[in-house]
Amino acid sequence: MRKPLKQTHRALFLALQADAKEYPGGISAIAKTMGMNGNTLSNGINPDHEALPPSFAAIMEIIAVAQARRTVFAMAQVVGQITVDAEGESGQAPGEAVSLFLSLVGRASEMLGKGSEAAKDGRFDAEERRLLEPLLVSLMQAVSDLLQSVRGGA
Question: Taking the model in full, what pTM does it have?
């Protein structure tokens, strides 16, 4: 027998619930914006509640209203993809994109060289995470900008 959707994609519904709770006024405020009953919406996005999940349209509205980045990340993971915040400069000249990329690769190499001994156990401690996460996000943004330049995009 197939598991209920909210259990099959539990991580997605946990992310959606967390994003909605963080919205100013929480799930109730989102429900009001959407013209829905707060309890109905709350139960629908709760992965531990038997209520049916909201429609795809309602989930998309929650994402838009709450700027639900965790949810978008969880959705991407369903198909083996990751998201990258695109808050960096867009439309960089190809030379600028290459320069930024090479600079970040150099910083990443240095950081990974220093941290390789500590990471041999396959786990990252809090300090390693604190240092690596912003660097990796910057590197992904730089790769995205460089790819856009290579493809001839603005």
Answer: 0.63
